[in-house]
C-alpha cells in the first residue's frame, strides 16, 4: 500500500498511522487483561519465557541478535504496533482454541480495525460509502440461523472492510467516519441483504516495526481481500469472521493465517455488480458457559 495524500488535508494515509490508531482503539474498547488469574499468569508466562530460552539455546542466539530483538520490541511499542503484531501472528491460534467446540459457522480473527456501534441499516441496505466509491459493487444476501435450523429474527450482522486502496475508516485519515462500516438487523425470517463494494487485497503496515520484521525475515505483508463480520443473536455465541474471494493469490499464504475454506465466497457476476449468498449458523450459548 503506498502513501496516499488526502485531498484538502496535509495528512498522509500511512499504514503506520493506522497502527497507532489501532492502539488507541484497543485502549478505548477492550477491558484490557482485566482479571488474569495469578495461577494462569504463573503457568503461561513461565512457559512462554521457557520457550524463548529453548530457542536461544537451540540456535545459540548471540548478543547482537539479543540486542536487535530488544531494540525491535521497543520500537513496536513506540510505533503503536502491538495490536497489529498480535492480531497478525498470534490471534489466529487464540481464535482456534476459543471456537473449537462450535458446530455452527467457522469464524476467524477480528483484527485491529473493528469499531463497535456502526450505523444501523435495517435488514436491507447499502454500507455507508463515498460518492463514486471505487470497487465492483456487491449485493450480499444471507440468512442467520441457529444450529437447530431455526431462523434468528433480529440477529445483528456488523460489517466492516477496507476500501479499494486497502484503508479502513477511522484508522487512516481523510475517510468519512463510518465509511464501509454498518450494522444490519435480520428480518422476521432471519434474512438480510447488504450492498457494498469488493474490497482490495490488503498489505499490513510496511512502514513501521512489523514491516521491518517482514523485510528482515524476507516475508511478504499481504492479506487477501476480505470483508469482516460479526453476527450475533440473543442466546447465541457471537461469531467473528472474515469472508474471502476465490482466486485471491493470498488466500493460501495470508500473513495473518486467517483464511479457512468455509469462509471463501462464491460471487456470481450479475451485469454491473456481483451477487453473493452467504449466511451464518450460530451456536446457542451452552449451559455450562452461560453465566
Ligand atoms: C491486520 C489488518 C487486518 O485488516 C486484519 O484483518 C488483520 C490484521 C493488521 O494490519 O494487523
Ligand atoms: Fe482486515
UniProtKB/TrEMBL annotation:
<keyword id="KW-0223">Dioxygenase</keyword>
<dbReference type="InterPro" id="IPR012800">
    <property type="entry name" value="Cchol_dOase_actb"/>
</dbReference>
<dbReference type="GO" id="GO:0009712">
    <property type="term" value="P:catechol-containing compound metabolic process"/>
</dbReference>
<comment type="similarity">
    <text>Belongs to the intradiol ring-cleavage dioxygenase family.</text>
</comment>
<dbReference type="GO" id="GO:0018576">
    <property type="term" value="F:catechol 1,2-dioxygenase activity"/>
</dbReference>
<feature type="domain" description="Intradiol ring-cleavage dioxygenases">
    <location>
        <begin position="109"/>
        <end position="283"/>
    </location>
</feature>
<feature type="region of interest" description="Disordered">
    <location>
        <begin position="1"/>
        <end position="38"/>
    </location>
</feature>
<keyword id="KW-0479">Metal-binding</keyword>
<feature type="domain" description="Catechol dioxygenase N-terminal">
    <location>
        <begin position="39"/>
        <end position="105"/>
    </location>
</feature>
<dbReference type="InterPro" id="IPR015889">
    <property type="entry name" value="Intradiol_dOase_core"/>
</dbReference>
<dbReference type="InterPro" id="IPR000627">
    <property type="entry name" value="Intradiol_dOase_C"/>
</dbReference>
<feature type="compositionally biased region" description="Low complexity">
    <location>
        <begin position="12"/>
        <end position="23"/>
    </location>
</feature>
<feature type="compositionally biased region" description="Basic and acidic residues">
    <location>
        <begin position="24"/>
        <end position="38"/>
    </location>
</feature>
<feature type="region of interest" description="Disordered">
    <location>
        <begin position="101"/>
        <end position="132"/>
    </location>
</feature>
<dbReference type="Pfam" id="PF00775">
    <property type="entry name" value="Dioxygenase_C"/>
</dbReference>
<protein>
    <submittedName>
        <fullName>Catechol 1,2-dioxygenase</fullName>
        <ecNumber>1.13.11.1</ecNumber>
    </submittedName>
</protein>
<dbReference type="Pfam" id="PF04444">
    <property type="entry name" value="Dioxygenase_N"/>
</dbReference>
<dbReference type="InterPro" id="IPR043029">
    <property type="entry name" value="1_2-CTD_multi_dom"/>
</dbReference>
<feature type="compositionally biased region" description="Polar residues">
    <location>
        <begin position="1"/>
        <end position="11"/>
    </location>
</feature>
<dbReference type="InterPro" id="IPR050770">
    <property type="entry name" value="Intradiol_RC_Dioxygenase"/>
</dbReference>
<dbReference type="GO" id="GO:0008199">
    <property type="term" value="F:ferric iron binding"/>
</dbReference>
<keyword id="KW-0560">Oxidoreductase</keyword>
<dbReference type="InterPro" id="IPR007535">
    <property type="entry name" value="Catechol_dOase_N"/>
</dbReference>
<keyword id="KW-0408">Iron</keyword>
Amino acid at each position: 500500500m503506498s502513501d496516499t495524500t488526502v485531498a484538502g488535508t496535509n495528512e498522509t494515509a500511512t499504514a503506520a498511522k493506522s497502527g497507532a490508531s489501532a492502539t488507541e482503539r484497543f485502549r478505548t474498547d477492550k477491558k484490557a487483561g482485566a482479571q488474569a488469574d495469578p495461577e494462569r499468569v504463573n503457568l503461561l508466562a513461565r512457559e512462554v519465557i521457557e520457550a524463548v530460552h529453548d530457542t536461544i539455546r537451540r540456535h545459540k542466539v548471540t548478543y547482537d541478535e539479543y540486542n536487535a530483538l530488544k531494540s525491535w520490541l521497543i520500537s513496536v511499542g513506540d510505533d503503536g504496533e502491538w495490536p497489529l503484531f498480535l492480531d497478525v501472528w498470534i490471534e489466529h491460534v487464540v481464535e482456534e482454541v476459543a471456537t473449537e467446540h462450535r458446530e455452527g459457522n467457522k469464524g476467524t480473527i477480528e483484527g485491529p480495525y473493528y469499531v463497535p456501534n456502526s450505523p444501523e441499516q435495517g435488514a436491507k441496505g447499502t454500507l455507508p460509502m463515498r460518492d463514486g466509491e471505487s470497487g465492483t459493487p456487491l449485493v450480499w444476501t444471507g440468512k442467520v440461523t441457529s444450529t437447530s435450523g431455526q431462523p434468528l429474527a433480529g440477529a445483528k450482522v456488523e460489517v466492516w472492510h477496507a476500501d479499494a486502496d486497502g484503508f479502513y475508516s477511522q484508522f487512516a485519515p481523510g475517510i468519512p467516519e463510518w465509511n464501509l462500516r454498518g450494522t444490519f438487523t435480520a428480518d422476521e425470517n432471519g434474512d438480510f441483504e447488504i450492498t457494498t463494494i469488493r474490497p482490495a487485497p490488503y498489505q499490513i503496515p510496511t512502514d513501521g516495526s512489523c514491516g521491518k520484521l517482514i523485510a528482515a525475515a524476507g516475508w511478504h505483508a499481504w492479506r487477501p481481500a476480505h470483508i469482516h463480520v460479526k453476527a450475533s443473536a440473543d442466546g447465541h455465541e457471537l461469531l467473528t469472521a472474515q469472508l474471502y474471494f476465490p482466486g485471491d493469490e493470498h488466500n493460501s499464504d495470508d500473513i495473518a493465517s486467517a483464511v479457512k475454506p468455509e469462509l471463501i465466497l462464491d460471487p456470481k457476476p450479475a451485469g454491473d455488480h456481483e451477487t453473493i449468498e452467504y449466511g451464518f449458523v450460530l451456536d446457542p450459548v451452552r449451559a455450562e458457559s452461560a453465566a
